[in-house]
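The following record pairs a protein chain with its ligand, S-adenosylmethionine.
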Amino acid sequence: MNDIEPEPPEAQQIFGDRIELARRFTAALAKHGETRGLIGPLEPPRLWTRHVLNSAVIAPLFSGRVGDIGSGAGLPGLVLAIARPDVEWVLVEPMERRVAWLNEQTEALGLDNVTVVRARAEDWREGSTLDAVTARAVSALRTLVPITAPLVRDGGELILLKGASAADEIVAAEKQLRKFRVTNARVEVVGEGVLAEPSRVIRATVR
Ligand SMILES: C[S@@+](CC[C@H](N)C(=O)[O-])C[C@H]1O[C@@H](n2cnc3c(N)ncnc32)[C@H](O)[C@@H]1O
């Protein structure tokens, strides 16, 4: 088994008084994530920095009722629900064993601000009700826009965790952004001065 990354000092700064829940979730993911097919074998030594803190640092960007599409192991959805108990989180995930994990963790951590929905985003007939949608490592923006924008209310936001290709993804999604009335798409870097490797989001408004 790979060694588990020790908790970095910035974790306390990011989670504040929610740090104990973040520790419990990270420990559970380190212990069961690989055997339950949630994370790869290379991830435990970088679980805090690459996954948990990468997700948590964007928590201040949200309010209201937010969907996490393709939540998987709970990244970013469960981590954000820990960091922001004042926001309501809907985790949308089609795979049964991942849904089971999300439900177990929601209960074990006592998170009363989380709903888990087993569905593909495009099959979830909720209407345009969410204040924002987030997603991480699900697909490129041009594929993500058609399945996420219809879930967001007029004036709500897409806030999508992305890697170094974020700016190129915006260019490649020009047609889909126009078709689904997604405006002001831009890349924002979050966590500079806090994380050695800050997070990057594509942020845009749905009109
Ligand atoms: C590579 S995993 C990423 C999981 C997690 N977001 C993360 O960052 O570790 C992609 C996840 O998206 C889910 N997914 C794929 N297509 C989807 C769709 N159309 N609607 C909702 N979830 C989807 C998959 O089942 C899988 O759990």
